[in-house]
Amino acid sequence: QMCIRDRESTTSYTFENIDEDAVKKWTELYETELRKIFNIPQLGLTRFYQEKMIRSVDKFNIFQSSLTEFLRLLTLPMEKSFQALQEKLAELADEGKLPEESKVYYQMWINILEGHYMTMFQSSEYTKNLNKTLHAMSEFSEAKKELLQDTLIHMFPVPTQKEMDELYKEIYFLKKRIKELEKRS
């Protein structure tokens, strides 16, 4: 086991210019190499549905990578707060001032964690990642909605949203026409 005093010191984390990691590398590989496969023109009678399915899978992959990057960003304050707490405890151990109550350790950790989250929430990296994730989620949601509307719903005797909107519009005009006829009588 490693003693607290043997631990190397770490610098405070700024949440700016986060280093490349495996998720970013995978996303880069997907966008430059694998995504090309999805742009191959589809053939046959069902090409329209194939294109929608491929678009949906593509948007899902982009959403998943964006979400993973965002969740990684959200876990960084935990990691950094544990490192900062270990440094603080090493300092206190060197001075011989380690507290005896566990509540004191917990309160130190919460204060450090709160500071790291406040810094992260104010960073441009957080805003950029949140925006990217929400945008990817909305694009995936739209692609999934199109896929379900055009493919799966036609198998069942369920009206589509477009058909329902047309029906509501027709009912509206019929009610308006009936009111006009009632006023004339």
Outline the secondary-structure elements.
Elements: H1 22-38, H2 47-95, H3 102-121, H4 124-152, H5 161-184
Helix pairs in contact: 1-2, 2-3, 2-4
Low-confidence residue ranges: 1-10
Structural class, by secondary structure, is mainly alpha
Gap from first CA to last CA: 94 Å
Helices and strands, in N-to-C order? HHHHH
The helix count comes to 5
Report the average pLDDT across residues: 83
Beta-strand content estimate: under 5%
Largest sheet: none
**What portion of residues is helical?**
over 70%
According to DSSP, the number of beta strands is: 0
Our Rg estimate from Cα atoms comes to: 28 Å
Shape: elongated
Give a verbal description of the structure:
It contains five helices and no strands. It is mainly alpha-helical and 185 residues long. Helix 1 runs antiparallel to helix 2 (47-95) and helix 2 runs antiparallel to helix 4. The chain is elongated.
Based on the model shown, name its key terms.
185 residues, 5 helices, single chain, disordered N terminus, mainly alpha
Short description:
With 185 residues, this protein is an all-alpha fold. The chain is built from five helices and no strands. The protein has helices at residues 22-38, 47-95, 102-121, 124-152, 161-184.
